[in-house]
């Protein structure tokens, strides 16, 4: 009986994030946006969280969770990431989120900021978070949704089909909002809720989007490498992108769907 390999290579993910660490704070505007959204939601919850774990998001997440309005609500904040360079502060941990080395009931709050899309076992990662939470503990996560990079995905598929080279998986599959709510319930969370919004970013050209993804450490990290993307196919894909997704001023659009999911450990 054959064993299906993991979709993502954790070593590649760590390598990409380590390479991006130096300029991450300036490039990871999506992570900063997600981190601020998490902080805004926590401000609205009228209860303290003495022990919190902040996973992913780099310096942006730690900064958002230590803002003045949350100082009396959050106690100790442990920062964690799969990459040591992106786990700032003296209280930091390095581990894969789907294999968290946390004692049961050791946290009152787990915040995951744009990291779970690299998990090979997303249900398992959510179960790990639930087990780490004490009774009445909160999980708050932001993940990329299914509409993320839909323009780039369409342009790549169209170029490969047009040039007869066969389609390859080049952009990671993302969960949709309904999926996330169901996965939270499956992981044993009470009162699971998921909502989403789409952030549209505009670029002077599609190549600038690719540079941004690389700079924020979000390059593809598949276990099985796709067929090499030739310059000819890439050039045609960028041309299709410009033809289909340009605004009147010539700038191109890129969609990022951010799904925010919450659940309680009871």
- What is the third-level CATH name, the topology of the domain at 10-149 and 173-198 and 255-265? Rossmann fold
Number of strands: 7
> How helix-rich are the residues, as a percent range?
25-40%
Strand content: 15-25%
Sheet with the most strands: spatial strand order: 3-2-1-4-5-7-6
The secondary structure category is alpha/beta
Could you tell me the mean pLDDT? 93
CATH superfamily of the domain at 10-149 and 173-198 and 255-265: Vaccinia Virus protein VP39
Q: List low-confidence stretches.
A: none
How are helices and strands ordered from N to C? Answer: HHHEHEEEHEHHEHHE
Inertia-based shape:
globular
> For the report, how would you describe the main beta sheet?
7 strands, mixed
CATH architectural label of the domain at 10-149 and 173-198 and 255-265:
3-Layer(aba) Sandwich
Per CATH, the class of the domain at 10-149 and 173-198 and 255-265 reads Alpha Beta
Number of helices: 9
**How far is the first residue's CA from the last residue's CA?**
39 Å
Supply Rg. 19 Å
Structure description:
The protein has helices spanning 10-20, 24-27, 29-43, 58-65, 122-132, 150-162, 177-186, 206-215, 231-244, and strands at 49-56, 74-81, 92-94, 107-113, 133-144, 190-203, 252-265. It has 266 residues and is of the alpha/beta class. It has a domain at 10-149 and 173-198 and 255-265: Vaccinia Virus protein VP39 (Rossmann fold), CATH 3.40.50. A 7-stranded mixed beta sheet has the order 3-2-1-4-5-7-6, with helices on both faces. α3 runs parallel beside α4 and α6 (150-162) crosses α9. The mean pLDDT is 93.
